[in-house]
Amino acid sequence: MTVLRRSIDEVAKRGRKVIDTRTRVGKALMAWRGELVQDLGGSEQLSTQQLAIVDIAVRTKLLLDSVDAWLLRQDSIIDKRRRQLFPVVQQRTALADAMARYLGTLGLARVAREARLSDYLKKGSD
């Protein structure tokens, strides 16, 4: 949990720059970000506020995926002595709920990108 807390603090300080795009995880996150932006109609169609929410969603995905990976490596998610779930399970749920809210704020429907003549010409020359 200490490592996770340090990661969260680092993400809060540096924002998107904390994601090292040279790593497999960083590349996957940036690919997911690109797909999300495309689904929303492309970066030129998004406002600054929407792009900020996209970046928050990307960081939340990193945290959520990290917590999921850690949880799946555990023998059990139940504290047998207390007969309850470990607190990290509730924190994971909070991250998942936040992710759903961010995506809901951005909109769940795919937005058609406006076609341009230059795009058609470029596609025809390939």
Helix content: 55-70%
Rounded radius of gyration (Å): 18 Å
- Tell me the number of structural domains: 1
- Overall average residue pLDDT: 83
Low-confidence stretches: none
Query: Major β-sheet, in short?
Result: 2 strands, antiparallel
Strand content: under 5%
The rough form would be described as: elongated
Q: How would you characterize the overall build of this protein?
A:
By secondary structure, this protein is mainly alpha-helical. It has one domain. Helix content is 67%, strand content 3%. The chain contains five helices and two strands. The chain has a two-stranded antiparallel sheet with strand order 1-2. The radius of gyration is 18 Å and the shape is elongated.
Structure keywords:
126 residues, mainly alpha, elongated, single chain, two-stranded antiparallel ribbon
Entry summary:
The chain is mainly α.
Topology:
Blueprint: H1 2-14, H2 24-39, H3 48-73, E1 78-79, E2 84-85, H4 87-106, H5 117-125
Antiparallel strand pairs: 1-2
